[in-house]
Structure formats: structure tokens, C-alpha cells
Amino acid sequence: MSADRSVRGIRPSRRAGIAAAAGCVLAAMAPATTGVAAQAYPTTANSISRADKAEGAKAHPDLLAEFGGALTGPQASYVEQVGKTIAIQSGLSNARGDFAVTLLNSPVNNAFAIPGGYVYVTRQLTALMNNEAELAGVLGHEVGHVAARHSAKRQQAASRNQLLGVLGSVLSGVLLGDSAFGRLGQQLASQGSQMLTLKYSRSQELEADRLGISYLKRAGYDPRAMATVLDSLARQNALESQLRGSTNQVPQWASTHPDPASRVRDAQAQAGSGQSGSGQVGMTNRDVFLTRIDGLVYGDDPKQGIIDGNRFTHPDLRLAFQAPEGFYLVNGTQAVSINGDSGKAQFSGGALGTGLDAYIQTVFASLTQSGQARIVPSRIERAEVNGLAAAYGVAQVQASSGPVDVAVFAYDFGGGKAYHFLTITRVGGAGAFNGMFKSMRRISAGEAGQVKPRRLSVVTVKAGDTVQSLAGRMAYTDAAVERFLVLNGLESGARLVPGQKVKLVVY
């Protein structure tokens, strides 16, 4: 949750037009065919229209804000260079200057493109890649969605269906059923990196991958990179589920997109044996890529708060809290979501206004959909938590799946600022979050100063280095070997070769 946006409170998702225009995480990519025939895509765009440029320019600032902003410097320039090289293969424009490629400061594995020549990839997804061809494949796939005019079709779908983010889908589907009370799900899902994406159809994913692989071949890249990056995403998906302790807890980047695991074999087959069947598979530029992304921030940026296990610390806002055991946290630019089998929650903030009572009433009022009865707590109770003035209220709401308890627990942080948890549980279950409510505290300047980001460190394997010894240098106390293998696209039992470059995550 970024410091400069944290006091704006819980807001609904951005307008559907932007959401429909935004592309998808690469986890949604599908296989491609060798030698794509032009007639296979009768709806493929062959230019960037003035209308597209205007639409893209209008959406661009919002997208930057929702995804943590744009990174600058040598790493961003490198990504921009690769992105423009692959984008011009689409035929939308032969001018590199017609494309704007942005490296986003987001800890979520994501990539997307919008009409007008705007292409985006997060630093987290970039860090998961292992060569330049994979980066080109990711961006080419997203440009393929634009070239195939998929956003227009998704806008039509968006006009028929309310946009819900990850948490909203879980809440409305699991706790709220299909009732009109899905508005609460939308509010709770107000998390930048999830709420701007809509799911492409299977056929659209297939089409975008066919185009993406054709772009790789035209640019001289190894088309098999599409399959290898899909494999990395699938393995990352499995690892995140393992670390969270449940295969039902879908990582944020995979929440609205098909699992890439089922597509790896198809992508391998579609890439073929190489260019012209000669066995020459094109360039990967692995060492160049690794050298250029060395030092990239990995995971949460302290400016947006840090998640460490079930603890959240925000050095700029000078606060910290701990989620209940068995729950996991997902950080967003506007809020932190807390997810578990017994309930869902979101941590956010806003202007205190006239006091905690009014603040809590305002949060409840924001959950009420137009035309429905106002949601109000039965009463508001005062409390004190670690020296902070606090208050809470609970409202029982009838959902199609049965009654649920919606609770707001708010804290006065002084200076006109307040922060709150918004939780939803089955009736009588709000107590599952009591420990979290009581854990909220201010942190000292010294504690805030000790919060450091994790970064990628590209190292050269030396004689005697093993997977285990290098993994032991990772900035994690759990699953270090598994994290190292997935990060480097290595299989279990892999042997390292002196001179080989590998990635570590260090403080």
C-alpha cells in the first residue's frame, strides 16, 4: 500500500473502459503456431489509430498509479528497448516511437498492453524471467492482444458484467453467492494490480500467443522462450500455493487467468524445432538480460509497505500489524488484503474527518450499492489498541449464501489520518480477526529504518557452488532451495556449472 495513496480510503474499481482495455498477465498466455498465416486473423489491426492513441493516453496515468508507478533508469531503458523491438514486429507501426513500453514498480507478476501503443510489464514478472527472449515473448503476447483487437471484445463483455477483482470474486462467489451484494466484493477488491484486468477467452489467448511467437521469430528470438516463461509461471504458481498452505489460494496474478501449466507442452509444440526447420532456434541473450536486470527490487517496495510472512510493516506510514495464523497477505497500491478460509479482510485508510464514529459510518456507507438499503453497524464500540484510539462496528448482511458479518475496525493515527480493517466472515466469525485488530501498532523511526527491500543479485557460479549453497544466501528463511530453483528456471537435482550466471534474492 503506497504511502501517497493510503489515505484515500476504499474506492471502487476504475472505470470499466480502462479495465477492458488493459491486457492480461502472461499467466494467461496460450500456445502459438508456427508460420501464422495472415488470413488466420481477419480482425487483426494494422495501424494505431488516432482514437487508439487518445484512449491509451487517457488511460496511461491511471494505470501507472494503479501499478505502483513507472521505474526509470538503466533497467527500465533496457525493457523499453526490448519491448519496442518486439512491438514493431506486430505491424501496428514501423516507428519505435509510436510505442511506450513501461517497467512498472509492482510486486505482482503481470504484463499487459492497451490500444495506442502502450505496453507494460512489472518488475516482478521481469525478475522471474531468465533471458531476453522470454521478455520479448511476454511483451509480444500482450501486443498480440492489441493487434487482434481483443480489448474491444472485452469492453463489450465488461458492459454486461460488473468488474470484480481477485478478492471480490472470492467474496462474492464464496461468501456472497451471486447476489446483488457483489458491490462489497468489488469494494474489497480495490487493489490496483488485480482490478484492472479482465479474463480473455481461451481462443483469444491462443490467438495472442500465435501472434507473439510469430513476432519472436521475426525479431530473431528463440520462439521456445514462450514455453519456458510459461513453465516458470506455472511453477511459481505452485510454489506460492505451497507456501500459503493451500492449492485453493490462487496467487494474484493467476486469479483471473487460466493456469499456464496446461499450456507449456502446446507452446513447445507450436514453437517448432527452430527457424525454417534448420534447428537454429534464434537468440536468447541470456547473459545480457541477467546483467541488465541485476539489482532490480524483488517483492515489496518499502515505499509501499513490506509483507514478511503474516506481518505487514510500512516504514513511511510508521505502522505494523500481523495477520492471524493461517491467513496470507497480498499488498496493493491502495490496500492490503488478508485472506483465509474463515474470512477475508482489507486494510486501508482515509481522512479521519469528524471522528472515528463518522469514519466507520462512511466506510459502511461506501459498501452500499445504489438502490439498496444502507448498510449500518448495529452499534459502534470504543477501544484502545497499543496506545491508539480505536473503534469498531459490525453489521449483519443477508447474502444469497446466507447471513454474513461485515466489520470495520478503525484507528486514529493523529494528524487527521485514520486506518481501518474491513472484514467479512460468516455470522459470529468476526472474532477470527481479533488478534489482528489488537496487533496494530506504531513503529519507531529506528524500526522503520531497518526495513530494507529485497533485490536481485546476479552472481557467477564458482567451483564448489551448489544449488544448496547458493540458495542459502537467499533472503528467505523458508523454501530457499525451492525459491532458487523456480527463480532460475532450474529443475530439482540441477547441477550448476562454473561460469554460469544465476539470480539470488538478497537484502
Automatic annotation (TrEMBL):
<dbReference type="Pfam" id="PF01476">
    <property type="entry name" value="LysM"/>
</dbReference>
<keyword id="KW-0732">Signal</keyword>
<dbReference type="InterPro" id="IPR036779">
    <property type="entry name" value="LysM_dom_sf"/>
</dbReference>
<dbReference type="GO" id="GO:0016020">
    <property type="term" value="C:membrane"/>
</dbReference>
<keyword id="KW-0479">Metal-binding</keyword>
<dbReference type="GO" id="GO:0051603">
    <property type="term" value="P:proteolysis involved in protein catabolic process"/>
</dbReference>
<keyword id="KW-0862">Zinc</keyword>
<feature type="domain" description="LysM">
    <location>
        <begin position="457"/>
        <end position="504"/>
    </location>
</feature>
<dbReference type="Pfam" id="PF01435">
    <property type="entry name" value="Peptidase_M48"/>
</dbReference>
<keyword id="KW-0482">Metalloprotease</keyword>
<feature type="region of interest" description="Disordered">
    <location>
        <begin position="240"/>
        <end position="282"/>
    </location>
</feature>
<dbReference type="InterPro" id="IPR051156">
    <property type="entry name" value="Mito/Outer_Membr_Metalloprot"/>
</dbReference>
<dbReference type="InterPro" id="IPR018392">
    <property type="entry name" value="LysM"/>
</dbReference>
<dbReference type="InterPro" id="IPR006311">
    <property type="entry name" value="TAT_signal"/>
</dbReference>
<feature type="signal peptide">
    <location>
        <begin position="1"/>
        <end position="27"/>
    </location>
</feature>
<keyword id="KW-0645">Protease</keyword>
<feature type="compositionally biased region" description="Polar residues">
    <location>
        <begin position="240"/>
        <end position="255"/>
    </location>
</feature>
<keyword id="KW-0378">Hydrolase</keyword>
<dbReference type="GO" id="GO:0004222">
    <property type="term" value="F:metalloendopeptidase activity"/>
</dbReference>
<protein>
    <submittedName>
        <fullName>Peptidase M48, Ste24p</fullName>
    </submittedName>
</protein>
<dbReference type="InterPro" id="IPR001915">
    <property type="entry name" value="Peptidase_M48"/>
</dbReference>
<dbReference type="GO" id="GO:0046872">
    <property type="term" value="F:metal ion binding"/>
</dbReference>
